[in-house]
Write the C-alpha coordinates for this entry.
Amino acid sequence: MADAGERFLVVGPSWVGDMVMAQSLLMTLKARHPGCRIGVVAPAWSLPMLSRMAEVDEAIALGVGHGEFGWRARRQLAAALRGRFDRAIVLPRSWKSALVPFLARIPQRLGFTGEQRVVLLNRRRHLDKARLDQTVKRFVSLGLPDQEAANGDFAIPRPRLAVDAANLVELRLALGLSSRPAIGMMPGAEYGPAKQWPPAYFRQLAVWLVEAGYEVRVLGGPKDVEDGEQIAAGLEHVHNLCGKTQLADAVDLLADCQQVVTNDSGLMHVAAAVGTRVHALYGSSSPDFTPPMTARAEIHRLGLACSPCFARVCPLGHTNCLNQLLPKRIFDALMASPAE
Protein backbone atom coordinates (compact mmCIF):
# COMPACT_ATOMS: atom_id res chain seq x y z
CA MET A 1 0.00 0.00 0.00
CA ALA A 2 1.33 3.42 -0.92
CA ASP A 3 1.84 6.04 1.73
CA ALA A 4 -0.98 8.54 2.12
CA GLY A 5 -0.42 11.55 -0.02
CA GLU A 6 1.33 9.73 -2.88
CA ARG A 7 1.01 11.70 -6.08
CA PHE A 8 -0.10 10.05 -9.34
CA LEU A 9 0.04 11.56 -12.81
CA VAL A 10 -2.21 9.80 -15.32
CA VAL A 11 -1.69 10.47 -19.02
CA GLY A 12 -5.20 10.20 -20.37
CA PRO A 13 -6.52 9.00 -23.74
CA SER A 14 -7.62 11.18 -26.65
CA TRP A 15 -11.17 9.86 -27.23
CA VAL A 16 -14.32 10.81 -25.30
CA GLY A 17 -15.39 7.25 -24.53
CA ASP A 18 -11.90 6.20 -23.45
CA MET A 19 -11.67 9.21 -21.15
CA VAL A 20 -14.92 8.20 -19.47
CA MET A 21 -13.63 4.64 -19.04
CA ALA A 22 -10.38 6.00 -17.60
CA GLN A 23 -12.42 7.10 -14.58
CA SER A 24 -12.55 3.44 -13.56
CA LEU A 25 -8.77 3.57 -13.13
CA LEU A 26 -8.97 6.80 -11.15
CA MET A 27 -11.60 5.27 -8.85
CA THR A 28 -9.35 2.24 -8.37
CA LEU A 29 -6.36 4.40 -7.45
CA LYS A 30 -8.36 6.35 -4.87
CA ALA A 31 -9.67 3.12 -3.34
CA ARG A 32 -6.27 1.40 -3.27
CA HIS A 33 -4.25 4.42 -2.16
CA PRO A 34 -6.29 6.43 0.38
CA GLY A 35 -5.16 10.02 0.56
CA CYS A 36 -3.43 9.99 -2.82
CA ARG A 37 -3.64 12.92 -5.21
CA ILE A 38 -4.31 12.42 -8.90
CA GLY A 39 -3.42 14.72 -11.74
CA VAL A 40 -4.57 13.92 -15.27
CA VAL A 41 -2.80 15.16 -18.40
CA ALA A 42 -5.33 15.27 -21.20
CA PRO A 43 -6.40 17.18 -24.32
CA ALA A 44 -7.91 20.56 -23.52
CA TRP A 45 -11.37 19.49 -24.76
CA SER A 46 -11.61 16.89 -22.00
CA LEU A 47 -10.99 19.22 -19.04
CA PRO A 48 -14.70 20.04 -18.53
CA MET A 49 -15.43 16.31 -18.36
CA LEU A 50 -12.58 15.71 -15.93
CA SER A 51 -14.13 18.40 -13.72
CA ARG A 52 -17.13 16.06 -13.38
CA MET A 53 -14.93 13.26 -11.96
CA ALA A 54 -14.63 13.45 -8.18
CA GLU A 55 -11.35 11.53 -8.24
CA VAL A 56 -9.45 14.17 -10.27
CA ASP A 57 -7.55 16.61 -8.06
CA GLU A 58 -5.92 18.41 -10.96
CA ALA A 59 -6.73 18.44 -14.68
CA ILE A 60 -3.78 19.49 -16.82
CA ALA A 61 -4.25 20.47 -20.45
CA LEU A 62 -1.78 19.29 -23.05
CA GLY A 63 -1.95 21.90 -25.79
CA VAL A 64 -1.31 19.53 -28.68
CA GLY A 65 -3.83 18.71 -31.42
CA HIS A 66 -4.81 15.13 -32.21
CA GLY A 67 -2.02 13.55 -34.26
CA GLU A 68 0.45 16.40 -33.62
CA PHE A 69 3.85 15.77 -32.06
CA GLY A 70 4.04 19.09 -30.24
CA TRP A 71 7.60 18.81 -28.92
CA ARG A 72 7.71 22.33 -27.47
CA ALA A 73 4.34 21.99 -25.70
CA ARG A 74 5.31 18.62 -24.20
CA ARG A 75 8.68 19.91 -23.03
CA GLN A 76 7.16 23.02 -21.45
CA LEU A 77 4.48 21.00 -19.68
CA ALA A 78 7.06 18.52 -18.38
CA ALA A 79 9.15 21.35 -16.95
CA ALA A 80 6.09 22.69 -15.11
CA LEU A 81 5.34 19.24 -13.64
CA ARG A 82 8.88 18.38 -12.55
CA GLY A 83 9.09 17.35 -8.88
CA ARG A 84 5.33 17.28 -8.38
CA PHE A 85 4.50 13.57 -8.90
CA ASP A 86 5.79 10.23 -7.60
CA ARG A 87 4.27 7.89 -10.18
CA ALA A 88 3.00 8.18 -13.72
CA ILE A 89 0.55 5.86 -15.47
CA VAL A 90 0.47 6.24 -19.26
CA LEU A 91 -2.77 4.94 -20.78
CA PRO A 92 -2.13 5.46 -24.52
CA ARG A 93 0.37 3.07 -26.07
CA SER A 94 2.07 5.62 -28.30
CA TRP A 95 5.67 6.74 -27.96
CA LYS A 96 4.86 10.43 -27.69
CA SER A 97 2.32 9.90 -24.89
CA ALA A 98 5.15 8.75 -22.58
CA LEU A 99 7.32 11.81 -23.22
CA VAL A 100 5.87 14.18 -20.61
CA PRO A 101 6.38 11.85 -17.60
CA PHE A 102 9.92 11.04 -18.83
CA LEU A 103 10.87 14.69 -19.34
CA ALA A 104 9.27 15.57 -16.00
CA ARG A 105 11.58 13.00 -14.36
CA ILE A 106 8.77 11.26 -12.54
CA PRO A 107 10.48 8.41 -10.62
CA GLN A 108 8.09 5.56 -11.57
CA ARG A 109 6.58 5.51 -15.05
CA LEU A 110 4.24 2.64 -15.91
CA GLY A 111 2.53 1.65 -19.15
CA PHE A 112 2.10 -1.17 -21.62
CA THR A 113 5.00 -2.11 -23.84
CA GLY A 114 4.67 -0.50 -27.25
CA GLU A 115 6.34 1.75 -29.82
CA GLN A 116 9.87 1.32 -28.41
CA ARG A 117 9.13 2.98 -25.06
CA VAL A 118 11.91 1.09 -23.24
CA VAL A 119 13.72 4.25 -22.17
CA LEU A 120 10.66 6.42 -21.55
CA LEU A 121 8.90 3.92 -19.26
CA ASN A 122 10.87 2.27 -16.46
CA ARG A 123 7.99 -0.05 -15.56
CA ARG A 124 6.46 -1.83 -18.52
CA ARG A 125 3.83 -4.54 -18.82
CA HIS A 126 3.04 -6.87 -21.67
CA LEU A 127 -0.55 -6.42 -22.86
CA ASP A 128 -2.27 -9.81 -22.74
CA LYS A 129 -5.23 -9.08 -25.00
CA ALA A 130 -6.91 -12.39 -24.15
CA ARG A 131 -7.05 -11.72 -20.40
CA LEU A 132 -7.44 -7.97 -20.67
CA ASP A 133 -10.14 -8.20 -23.31
CA GLN A 134 -11.79 -4.82 -22.70
CA THR A 135 -10.43 -1.29 -22.92
CA VAL A 136 -11.59 -0.49 -19.40
CA LYS A 137 -9.90 -3.63 -18.04
CA ARG A 138 -6.62 -2.52 -19.56
CA PHE A 139 -6.91 0.88 -17.92
CA VAL A 140 -7.81 -0.49 -14.49
CA SER A 141 -5.07 -3.12 -14.60
CA LEU A 142 -2.44 -0.38 -14.62
CA GLY A 143 -3.62 0.68 -11.17
CA LEU A 144 -3.15 -2.80 -9.69
CA PRO A 145 -0.11 -4.83 -8.54
CA ASP A 146 1.55 -6.86 -11.29
CA GLN A 147 0.22 -10.29 -10.33
CA GLU A 148 -3.34 -9.14 -9.69
CA ALA A 149 -3.39 -7.24 -12.96
CA ALA A 150 -2.04 -10.16 -14.94
CA ASN A 151 -4.86 -12.60 -14.20
CA GLY A 152 -7.54 -10.27 -15.56
CA ASP A 153 -9.97 -11.12 -12.75
CA PHE A 154 -10.54 -7.96 -10.74
CA ALA A 155 -13.32 -5.52 -9.91
CA ILE A 156 -14.02 -2.71 -12.36
CA PRO A 157 -15.80 0.27 -10.82
CA ARG A 158 -18.34 1.91 -13.09
CA PRO A 159 -17.69 5.51 -14.13
CA ARG A 160 -19.92 8.10 -12.53
CA LEU A 161 -19.94 11.68 -13.79
CA ALA A 162 -21.32 14.46 -11.62
CA VAL A 163 -24.31 16.43 -12.92
CA ASP A 164 -24.67 20.22 -12.62
CA ALA A 165 -28.36 20.86 -11.92
CA ALA A 166 -28.02 24.65 -12.27
CA ASN A 167 -26.38 24.32 -15.68
CA LEU A 168 -29.18 21.99 -16.78
CA VAL A 169 -31.82 24.59 -15.89
CA GLU A 170 -29.96 27.22 -17.94
CA LEU A 171 -29.59 24.83 -20.87
CA ARG A 172 -33.26 23.93 -20.92
CA LEU A 173 -34.18 27.61 -21.10
CA ALA A 174 -31.51 28.60 -23.62
CA LEU A 175 -32.24 25.70 -25.98
CA GLY A 176 -36.02 25.98 -25.79
CA LEU A 177 -36.55 22.47 -24.44
CA SER A 178 -40.00 21.40 -23.34
CA SER A 179 -41.39 19.68 -20.27
CA ARG A 180 -42.02 16.46 -22.19
CA PRO A 181 -40.04 13.40 -21.09
CA ALA A 182 -36.87 13.35 -23.18
CA ILE A 183 -35.18 10.69 -25.28
CA GLY A 184 -31.61 11.33 -26.40
CA MET A 185 -30.21 10.32 -29.78
CA MET A 186 -26.51 10.21 -30.64
CA PRO A 187 -26.12 9.53 -34.38
CA GLY A 188 -22.37 10.18 -34.58
CA ALA A 189 -19.40 7.84 -34.27
CA GLU A 190 -15.98 9.44 -34.55
CA TYR A 191 -14.32 6.20 -35.61
CA GLY A 192 -16.19 5.87 -38.91
CA PRO A 193 -19.44 5.18 -40.79
CA ALA A 194 -19.36 1.42 -40.15
CA LYS A 195 -20.43 2.24 -36.58
CA GLN A 196 -23.30 4.57 -37.57
CA TRP A 197 -26.95 3.56 -37.72
CA PRO A 198 -28.60 5.31 -40.71
CA PRO A 199 -29.83 8.86 -39.95
CA ALA A 200 -33.09 7.97 -41.75
CA TYR A 201 -33.69 5.28 -39.12
CA PHE A 202 -33.10 7.78 -36.32
CA ARG A 203 -35.59 10.12 -38.00
CA GLN A 204 -38.29 7.45 -38.28
CA LEU A 205 -37.72 6.61 -34.62
CA ALA A 206 -38.01 10.30 -33.72
CA VAL A 207 -41.36 10.55 -35.53
CA TRP A 208 -42.77 7.66 -33.52
CA LEU A 209 -41.36 8.99 -30.23
CA VAL A 210 -42.95 12.43 -30.75
CA GLU A 211 -46.28 10.75 -31.52
CA ALA A 212 -45.87 8.83 -28.25
CA GLY A 213 -45.46 12.08 -26.29
CA TYR A 214 -41.68 12.44 -26.04
CA GLU A 215 -39.21 15.20 -26.77
CA VAL A 216 -36.16 14.08 -28.76
CA ARG A 217 -32.71 15.59 -28.24
CA VAL A 218 -30.13 14.87 -30.94
CA LEU A 219 -26.65 15.34 -29.50
CA GLY A 220 -23.22 15.35 -31.09
CA GLY A 221 -20.35 17.51 -32.18
CA PRO A 222 -19.90 19.85 -35.14
CA LYS A 223 -19.31 16.89 -37.48
CA ASP A 224 -22.78 15.57 -36.64
CA VAL A 225 -24.74 18.75 -37.49
CA GLU A 226 -25.80 17.54 -40.93
CA ASP A 227 -27.01 14.17 -39.64
CA GLY A 228 -28.79 15.93 -36.80
CA GLU A 229 -30.60 18.18 -39.26
CA GLN A 230 -31.65 15.19 -41.35
CA ILE A 231 -33.18 13.68 -38.22
CA ALA A 232 -34.86 16.81 -36.85
CA ALA A 233 -35.86 18.88 -39.90
CA GLY A 234 -39.52 19.90 -39.75
CA LEU A 235 -40.33 17.79 -36.70
CA GLU A 236 -41.88 19.50 -33.71
CA HIS A 237 -40.34 18.51 -30.34
CA VAL A 238 -37.17 17.21 -32.03
CA HIS A 239 -34.11 19.36 -31.28
CA ASN A 240 -30.89 19.18 -33.25
CA LEU A 241 -28.35 20.14 -30.58
CA CYS A 242 -25.32 18.87 -32.50
CA GLY A 243 -22.56 21.45 -32.37
CA LYS A 244 -24.60 23.72 -30.07
CA THR A 245 -23.39 22.39 -26.73
CA GLN A 246 -20.11 21.77 -24.96
CA LEU A 247 -19.12 18.35 -23.65
CA ALA A 248 -20.03 19.24 -20.06
CA ASP A 249 -23.45 20.39 -21.30
CA ALA A 250 -23.98 16.99 -22.93
CA VAL A 251 -23.34 15.38 -19.53
CA ASP A 252 -26.22 17.35 -18.00
CA LEU A 253 -28.59 17.01 -20.96
CA LEU A 254 -28.09 13.24 -21.11
CA ALA A 255 -28.65 12.89 -17.37
CA ASP A 256 -32.00 14.62 -17.92
CA CYS A 257 -33.09 12.07 -20.57
CA GLN A 258 -35.18 9.05 -19.62
CA GLN A 259 -33.43 6.90 -22.24
CA VAL A 260 -30.97 7.30 -25.09
CA VAL A 261 -30.44 5.57 -28.44
CA THR A 262 -26.83 5.66 -29.48
CA ASN A 263 -24.15 4.25 -31.72
CA ASP A 264 -21.05 2.82 -30.07
CA SER A 265 -19.58 6.26 -29.42
CA GLY A 266 -18.08 8.50 -26.79
CA LEU A 267 -21.46 9.96 -25.84
CA MET A 268 -22.74 6.42 -25.25
CA HIS A 269 -20.22 6.14 -22.42
CA VAL A 270 -21.19 9.59 -21.11
CA ALA A 271 -24.86 8.57 -20.98
CA ALA A 272 -23.96 5.37 -19.15
CA ALA A 273 -21.87 7.32 -16.64
CA VAL A 274 -24.78 9.58 -15.67
CA GLY A 275 -27.14 6.66 -15.09
CA THR A 276 -29.45 7.13 -18.08
CA ARG A 277 -30.90 3.99 -19.66
CA VAL A 278 -28.87 3.21 -22.79
CA HIS A 279 -29.97 1.48 -25.99
CA ALA A 280 -26.65 0.81 -27.70
CA LEU A 281 -26.46 -0.03 -31.41
CA TYR A 282 -23.53 -2.20 -32.44
CA GLY A 283 -22.49 -3.04 -35.99
CA SER A 284 -18.80 -3.19 -36.88
CA SER A 285 -17.70 -3.04 -33.23
CA SER A 286 -18.39 -5.30 -30.27
CA PRO A 287 -19.99 -4.77 -26.85
CA ASP A 288 -17.57 -7.40 -25.57
CA PHE A 289 -14.72 -4.93 -26.07
CA THR A 290 -16.30 -1.52 -25.35
CA PRO A 291 -19.58 -2.09 -23.48
CA PRO A 292 -21.54 0.74 -21.86
CA MET A 293 -20.48 0.58 -18.21
CA THR A 294 -23.92 0.45 -16.62
CA ALA A 295 -26.53 -2.05 -15.50
CA ARG A 296 -29.11 0.06 -17.34
CA ALA A 297 -28.12 -0.88 -20.88
CA GLU A 298 -29.75 -2.87 -23.64
CA ILE A 299 -27.51 -3.99 -26.49
CA HIS A 300 -28.94 -4.12 -30.02
CA ARG A 301 -26.91 -6.08 -32.56
CA LEU A 302 -27.65 -8.56 -35.32
CA GLY A 303 -24.52 -10.68 -34.91
CA LEU A 304 -24.02 -11.26 -38.63
CA ALA A 305 -21.25 -13.62 -39.69
CA CYS A 306 -19.18 -10.67 -40.93
CA SER A 307 -19.34 -8.70 -37.69
CA PRO A 308 -17.62 -7.44 -35.71
CA CYS A 309 -15.06 -6.46 -38.33
CA PHE A 310 -13.81 -3.34 -36.47
CA ALA A 311 -13.44 -1.54 -39.81
CA ARG A 312 -14.06 2.19 -40.25
CA VAL A 313 -15.94 1.56 -43.50
CA CYS A 314 -17.79 -1.67 -44.31
CA PRO A 315 -15.34 -3.82 -46.30
CA LEU A 316 -18.29 -5.52 -48.05
CA GLY A 317 -19.94 -2.24 -49.01
CA HIS A 318 -23.38 -2.89 -47.50
CA THR A 319 -23.15 -2.26 -43.72
CA ASN A 320 -25.96 -4.80 -43.25
CA CYS A 321 -25.02 -5.18 -39.59
CA LEU A 322 -26.73 -1.81 -39.05
CA ASN A 323 -28.92 -1.35 -42.15
CA GLN A 324 -30.86 -4.50 -41.27
CA LEU A 325 -31.35 -3.36 -37.65
CA LEU A 326 -34.74 -1.74 -38.19
CA PRO A 327 -36.25 1.22 -36.27
CA LYS A 328 -39.32 -0.74 -35.15
CA ARG A 329 -37.15 -3.05 -33.04
CA ILE A 330 -35.63 -0.09 -31.22
CA PHE A 331 -38.96 1.69 -30.76
CA ASP A 332 -40.50 -1.43 -29.23
CA ALA A 333 -37.53 -1.76 -26.89
CA LEU A 334 -37.88 1.86 -25.78
CA MET A 335 -41.58 1.44 -25.09
CA ALA A 336 -40.96 -1.80 -23.19
CA SER A 337 -38.22 -0.35 -20.98
CA PRO A 338 -39.29 0.12 -17.35
CA ALA A 339 -39.95 3.65 -16.17
CA GLU A 340 -37.52 4.47 -13.34
